[in-house]
Amino acid sequence: MEENTQNRPPAAQQRKTVAEALARLPGPRGERFVTVLEHGSLVVELYAPRENDPQMPHTRDEAYIVIQGSGQFINGESRQSFDRGDLLFVPAGVEHRFIEFTNDLALWVLFYGPEGGEAAPA
Question: Distance (Å, rounded) from C-alpha 35 to C-alpha 25?
Fold first, then answer.
């Protein structure tokens, strides 16, 4: 059976390392995030805020995977502790931010799906 590789990124673009992404931060204008992969509706970034997290709600669903660091995460009305290895989900449009976090915080961020989120009303 022949494998369809037409929509697959080249092999060199399929593997991303934390070290490579962190080496690109901060960005030229002081950005604390960098896009590492885009494929279809999926956008993967590395986010490494320092001192404060100025995020605003996003227009797409997102998942965070904590690479390193710990702290507190505000997600809508809830506040949760987080640590390395945790997965945090935020529906589109929900206010969220990291607070009281360690200065080594680094997260993979996965944005995906349609504007308004997958559970958006029709």
Answer: 11
- Find out whether 72 and 82 touch, Cβ atoms under 8 Å: yes
Determine if the peptide bond prior to 26 is cis (ω within 30°). yes
In the chain, where the domains are located: 17-112
The CATH classification number of 17-112 equals 2.60.120.10
Interatomic CA distance for residues 84 and 89, integer angstroms:
15
Q: Please state the pTM of the whole predicted model.
A: 0.86
- Condensed to tens digits (0 to 9), the pLDDT of residues 64-81 reads 999 999 999 999 999 999
Q: Torsions phi, psi of 13, nearest 5?
A: -95, -5
Paired residues of 113 in beta bridges: none
Burial per residue of 96-115, b for 16 or more beta-carbon CB atoms within 10 angstroms, e otherwise: bbbeebeeebbbbbbbbbee
Contacts of 70 (CB under 8 A, 6+ apart): 81, 82, 83, 84, 101, 102, 105
Which stretch of DSSP H or E encloses residue 115?
Answer: none
